Records
---
Amino acid sequence: MDGITIRPARSGDAPGIAAVHSASWRVTYPGIVPQSYLDGMHPEKTVERWRDAAAGKHPGAHLLIAEENGKIIGFETYGPAREPAFGYAGELYAAYFLPEAMGKGLGTEMMKTVVHDLAAQGLNDMIVWVMEANGRGRRFYEKILGGVVIPGSRKSFDIEGAQIWEIAYGFRPLPLLK
């Protein structure tokens, strides 16, 4: 993609990653996640978390960013599956993009790097958890990457008293390795 660099994150990228994280949640999850939670998402609250992630403080996890003209416009984090459930070795932990970067193929481009890196680590399949009501994310994993919902994967978690349901998509073998 012209003018866009995809590279491993560095600690100094944390403010930009935090900004992408907050902005992406605010446009992706209205009506899914309580608005009060979305309104309370401010990048400065998560900068340290992303600085730790970029510095490699989470063993096995990788953080990849997309940058355009020095501005971080998206990120994906991945590594070994956090839970051994369903028998998948690798996991895409998160993928978020600025609203203006969505729908332009950047997720697919970044995913190529992710799956090649997972395969190089001997992780030959992947799971990703998606909020069940996130239609855009689900379409990406189904139609672009060819993922299938893993039977029995539906589970919920709580955000400010709201029950949020998520499902897992499985990729066996990894997509985009052709």
Note: The first strand starts at residue 4 and ends at 8.
---
Amino acid sequence: MYRKNLLGDINSEILSYISSMEEDKELVEEVIESLIAHVKVLTSQNLIPKEKEEKILEELKNLLEDPSSLFKIEAEDVHEAIEIYLRQKLGEDEGYLALGKSRNDHVSAALRLKAKKLLIEQIKEVLTFRRILLEKAKNHLNTIMPAFTHLQPAQPSTFAHYLCYIEETLATYTKALLFAFEIVDSSPLGAGAVGGTSVPLNRKKLAGELFGGIIFNSINATSNRDFLGIACSIDVNLSIFLSRIAEDIVIFSTPQFNYLKLPNEHLATSSMMPQKRNPATMEIARAWGGESIGHLIALLTILKGLPTGYNLDMQEANKHAFKILKGTLETLKIFADLFAKIEVNEENLLRDVKIFPILATDIAEKVALISGRPYREVYGEIAKLVKDSESVEEFYAKVREKYGIEVSLEEGIKKPITGSPNPEKVKEYIETAEKALEEDFSKLKFLTLNC
């Protein structure tokens, strides 16, 4: 439809190659919403006749309810398909829709609307996950477990301390996602193809239908995809963090560790070995972390060499953005469900705290503080005692004999510093985190009401 007067008909194979119709199924609702806003503002400014608006809006609203007929039309993209469809329904009256608009500003608007919706859902799932973690942490303030470095038992911690580590990281990502939403929530509508339009559209009024503000510069509004790059970069970093937690869960749920029992619905069986309980969802989540990196690299690489202004390469970046935004959302839902149902084998956590000399650091620090000697000197002595002991019991016995001190696991977790696994410190953190969480839920509610 767009090319016919200038370029004539197109070979079907070439049309298939350049068409984005398949990818546009993701955006069709947002494309129509942008068009509805456009038509309303045109009419309110007396730029098109009221009776034409009513006809166009009726058909657009019908399409919004069921856009499937659009994808039976041969077109470069859904924008052209909508105009072809409306031409069939309304004849020449369809042409009023095109006044003061370009695919360029409307593609950008649809992308931003879609990203807004997915970011709101992501924030909702992150907040839900955080609430689950804090509730579960309250029940495990004194559930002692090893903390690891290099996957080697390092120091005594608690399961609540571990859960709060996840929650605090997710609180940081909540801020990042809210920041991404703020960046995305600006309107490009009315910016035309690249240099604006001679039609005196009220861009602020246009934005008010769908967005919180406007992108001032028409070049920036139509040719910039940094908003996708920023939102997707945050999502990929979040997915990588979740991948690390998935790795923890895979390890902790093995029979060798047996710290955690995963809900059956998150497990898969073997086709050959009847005893197997494989951590299926966590393995997929771990893989998603890597897959998301691939999509981000594709997205950024497509954008990196483009000259300023709209280029068709940009439509090829969209599918990678959708993969990232939707994949991250799905993964968050999986984690929230798993942690709500996960069971803790407390005796096994305690087992590994007792069979490894993870109080060695506490002993060295205590000796250094009592004696006033340099820590490094005491550190060397304690290392030799560990080396010369055939068991943890023997090591602790040698400590008692040499230094006359006793350090218990309970004392080992009750460190005085903020952020330690000390049950009182963790409890204080949970109380503070719950208040912050409620504030974040209020922010989400505000975004939802104003979207």
Note: The chain has two domains: 4-99, 113-144+156-346.
---
Amino acid sequence: MPNDSGKFKGQRHISKKGDMTLRTLRYLAGTSATRTKAWKPRYEKLLAKGKEKKQAIVAIARRIAITLYSVYKFNSMFDIKRIDKQL
């Protein structure tokens, strides 16, 4: 969640808006995903870019949500090779 004004770029923080249960489940999914072969390279890349662990987990959780929506919307199967191409 940005805190910007004009040219000033403020500190970012994780928003606490929205359904608490859904946020918790997304975060836990992101935490678990950092240990899988599909998502671990992306997590390590985020850490190498200087992100904090919690920021990287939230980014992974967001990417998982986007991937799930795409699988649902286009009625397709999850393909790990497509995730690898995005790195």
Note: Residues 9 and 33 are 31 Å apart (CA to CA).
---
Amino acid sequence: MSTTYKIDPAHSSAHFVVRHMMITNVRGAFSNVQGAIVWDAADPSQTTVEATIDAATIQTQDAARDGHLKSADFLDVEKYPTITFKSTSVVPAGDGELKVTGDLTIRGVTEPVVLKVEGPTAETKDPWGNVRVGASATTKIKRSNFGLTWNAVLEGGGIALGDDLKIELEVSLIKS
């Protein structure tokens, strides 16, 4: 028997990490993560995951950089306002872990990705009577595969931005 959980945007987030100027990692985040998971504990292969992120909510602690990331050089949020994920396969991957394969769409480009998921946690009741579970997920993508190709050559050699983009997700889910 499956159970539907809705992503709680107030307690969920999507973070990313990219190498900047070949010397350090820069972190950013998106808020307003929404979607649903239909969880089948008896047969996880029947589980489905769908999520949508508001691309305009990108935050990197630098307003000028955030504006550039929202522009046509990167996410082009006016033309592509959302980032979406839809699972195609869910398989157990060890104790309390899942491998969730699905289609990630960024900037109108869809590519398969594999999420390493910890969870879901056991159900717990929050102070308002909602039944909740949580999960964490990670993956790594090549940003260039999604048309995120802007870069700059550094004076001393090398490039401003790495192509590898680490993605970290934290979701709090409310039982429907």
Note: The first strand starts at residue 3 and ends at 7.
